[in-house]
Specification:
There is one protein chain. By secondary structure, this protein is mainly alpha-helical. The chain has a single domain, classed as PDCD5, DNA-binding domain (Helicase, Ruva Protein, domain 3), CATH 1.10.8. About 70% of the residues lie in helices and about 0% in strands. The chain is built from four helices and no strands. Helix 2 crosses helix 3 and helix 2 packs parallel to helix 4. The chain is flat. The termini are far apart.
Amino acid sequence: MQQSELNKLQQQQQQKQQKQNNAEMQKKQAAMEEQRKAILSQILSTEARERLSRIALVRPEHARQIENFILQSGIRQQISEQQLIDFVEEFTKQTKKETTVKIQRKHWSDDSDEDFY
């Protein structure tokens, strides 16, 4: 019985430690996100922020990638709406996937075009 009680106590301690670690990670992520927003609000003009927020409404992952692109580019001057549009166009060109549509028609052995004449 003592061994099972000891195992239970160890499991409880591990769970408590995991919860603390998760809470700390969430706090760190929240702090990083706040710092990210602060930097972007300093860099982007109000019009550019509005445009980026509209992009985020439609495609959040695309907006996040654009934000990363802006932050990693190292620009520390004010970015206007037109400059943001240029960034978006450049980013879209880099990440654009070529899509092609290929139509395959099924050929049936009993189909005949002569039936229509």
